[in-house]
């Protein structure tokens, strides 16, 4: 028993240097229009935002061990000199410097850093709808990235259309069938609309099998999130 305990402790100490390193995220705007990039995490809670004109980029550091993290683009924003205003899509409480998640519709780059086996887990999600295309790729670590850049706004079903984006059915209808709040749920015609166009992206809240577990990188990997790739 003592031998096993010592071995486990040594293994933990071996991983510790990786677990204390922040991950660098470069956020790039390749859209032909201005976006207001946003990020937020839980555990520990943090966030921020920045205006990015077409072609501009912004680099942020996210603390290791961050869970519930996401990066997204806000569109159609207007802020005053105090950083207060609103956005057509992705608005986070009417402030430039986000400290919480954005309002649908918004395409999400989601991540959890230094988790099980010191792996980063990451995905692209359309569970909160879609406003701009995303590419979410590692810039180190030797693992593959993911992309969702279909014409979802232009082809959006009439029931889900929203100014500047394509909404998720939970926001529109608010039922268990689409929100999956009380037990298991299955794909729907609306989730299949998103899945067909972006096979690697989350299409509904319980779309785990094809959208999360296969996208991992070693802890300490750095990433690039590109809007309108």
TrEMBL record:
Highest taxon of the lineage: Eukaryota
Alphabetized Pfam families for the sequence: Thaumatin
Subcellular localization(s) per the UniProt record: Cytoplasmic vesicle
UniProt keyword Disulfide bond present: yes
Any one of the GO CC terms: cytoplasmic vesicle
Keywords: Cytoplasmic vesicle, Disulfide bond, Signal, Taste-modifying protein
UniProt signal peptide: 1-22
Classification via InterPro entries: Thaumatin, Thaumatin_CS
Family that this chain belongs to: Belongs to the thaumatin family.
Chain's role: Taste-modifying protein; intensely sweet-tasting. It is 100000 times sweeter than sucrose on a molar basis.
Protein name (database record): Thaumatin-like protein
Species in which this protein is naturally found: Zingiber officinale (Ginger)
């Amino acid at each position: 028993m003592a031998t096993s305990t010592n071995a486990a402790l040594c293994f933990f100490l071996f991983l510790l240097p990786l677990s204390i390193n922040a991950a660098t995220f470069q956020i790039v705007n390749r859209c032909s229009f201005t976006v207001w990039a946003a990020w937020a995490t839980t555990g520990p809670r943090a966030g921020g935002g920045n205006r990015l004109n077409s072609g501009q980029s912004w680099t942020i550091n996210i603390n290791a061990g961050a869970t519930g993290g996401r990066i997204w683009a806000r569109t159609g924003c207007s802020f005053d000199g105090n950083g207060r205003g609103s956005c057509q899509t992705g608005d986070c409480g009417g402030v430039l410097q986000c400290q919480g998640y954005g309002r649908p519709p918004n395409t999400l780059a989601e991540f959890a850093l230094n988790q099980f086996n010191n792996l980063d887990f990451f995905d692209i999600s359309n569970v909160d709808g879609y406003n701009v295309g995303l590419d979410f790729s590692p810039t180190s670590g030797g693992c593959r990235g993911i992309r969702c850049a279909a014409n979802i706004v232009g082809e959006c079903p009439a029931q889900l259309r929203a100014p500047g984006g394509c909404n998720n059915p939970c926001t529109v209808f608010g039922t268990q069938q689409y929100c999956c709040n009380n037990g298991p749920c299955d794909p729907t015609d609306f989730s299949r609309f998103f899945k067909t166009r972006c096979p690697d992206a989350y299409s509904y809240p319980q779309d785990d099998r094809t959208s999360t577990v296969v996208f991992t990188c070693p802890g300490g990997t750095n990433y690039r999130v590109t809007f309108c790739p």
